[in-house]
Every structure is written in structure tokens, then in C-alpha cells.
Amino acid sequence: MDICQRISRLKKTSYSDEIKHVIDNESTVLICYPEYNEAYDYVDKMFPKLNVKDIKIYIYDRDHSIGILSKKQFYGFYNVSFDSVFVAKREEGSLISIDETIVHELFHYVSFHDNDNNLSGIYEEYFAYANSLKYFKSKGWSDDDLIRKYLFPFFSIKFSKKLAMNKAKYFLIKHMKKDTPTNKNDFLNIL
Q1: C-alpha to C-alpha distance for 166 and 145, rounded to whole angstroms
Q2: Which has fewest Cβ within 10 Å: 81, 102, 134, 179?
């Protein structure tokens, strides 16, 4: 099972014991709007009818997690059963900040709750990556950093290194030009 399949499974199943362990842990921090308001506002502005600002976010410590949630490759996830976003704490200077992860994961919430963009599997990831690009750019990410450090690792799961790099460049160019949120119809040409 590749990382996309494991993440997709984590989002669609409850993993009740693991998630309850995270929620109940004293090191876990519950975040609600207006904390991280810039991240919430960015997604809410694009999808105002979905009550993004009502979503609970749990920031958890991997060292106090069990099972799949303790894995280093997980920055965060949205879980349907708990209707919440979970974001792993990270050290100062980490590649992707907590607020950037929140934006990405809130787009998974949008994907699940928006009937026009209800996606699954790889398309849901495309949706989250595409719609979060401008937020990352506003945080100072260069085009080269977006391609090499954010998009390339994702595309390299499915494609060879050369093809993944080309897909990442095309993806960035295509989605940075859009004035409207990316939707499921935008993904047909990428795969």
C-alpha cells in the first residue's frame, strides 16, 4: 500500500483508538477559529458556504501517538468520522509550517463536504495541493521551492522522477494562473 492509499484510508476510516489517543493526550492542543485565522480565512474565502471556520483542529505530538499517526511522513490529515483536522507538531524550521498544513488539510474537508468537488483518492490530493498553492506562495515560497519541495514529492509517488518533475512544473503553471478555486474538472488533463 503506497502512502496515498494509506492517507486516503486514514481519512475515510475512523482509526478510533489512535485518534482518541491523540485527542485525549495532554500534549494535544485543540485549535478553533480565530486561532490560525489566516489559514482558516484563506479556505473560507474560496468556499464560504462550507463553514470551514467551524472545523476543530488538533495539533498533536507524534512522540505521544500510536500506530500510523506516529509516522514521520504524516504532516496532517482530515478525518471524516471525527470531522476534524489533525496536524502533527513540528520543529522550528520545518519545511512545511503548521498553518500551511492546516490550509492543505482544510481543502480535504472542503473536498469531502462540497458536492461539486466530492473527490476521492488521488483527485482529492490534487484538489488540496492545487488550491493551497497561492497560500504557500503568499508565505514566501518561490516557484522552484513549490515545485521541488512541495509538488515533486507528491508527484513522485505516482510517476518516474523525470515525469514527476514535469508534472509538478505543469501543475504549478496551470494552477497559479487561475483566479477561481481549482475543481475536479481541472484534473482530467493532469493524469
Answers
A1: 14
A2: 179
Write out residues in the chain with pLDDT < 50, as ranges: 1-5, 12
Residue 14: predicted pLDDT:
54
- Cell numbers placing 41: 480565512
Residue 163: other Cβ atoms inside 10 A: 12
d(CA 170, CA 173): 5
Question: Which pLDDT value is given to residue 75?
Answer: 83
Instruction: Tell me the per-residue pLDDT of 99-138, one tens digit each, with 9 for 90 and over.
Output: 999 999 999 999 888 866 666 777 888 889 999 999 999 9
Range of the domain at 20: 3-187
Q: How many residues make up the chain in this entry? A: 191
> What residues contact residue 59 under an 8 Å CB cut-off, 6+ apart?
28, 29, 31, 87, 88, 89, 98
Q: What's the total number of domains in the chain?
A: 1
Looking at 29-180, which runs of residues are DSSP E strands?
29-31, 56-60, 76-79, 84-88
pLDDT value of residue 1 = 46
- Name residues whose C-beta falls within 8 Å of residue 32's C-beta, 6 or more positions apart in sequence: 56, 57
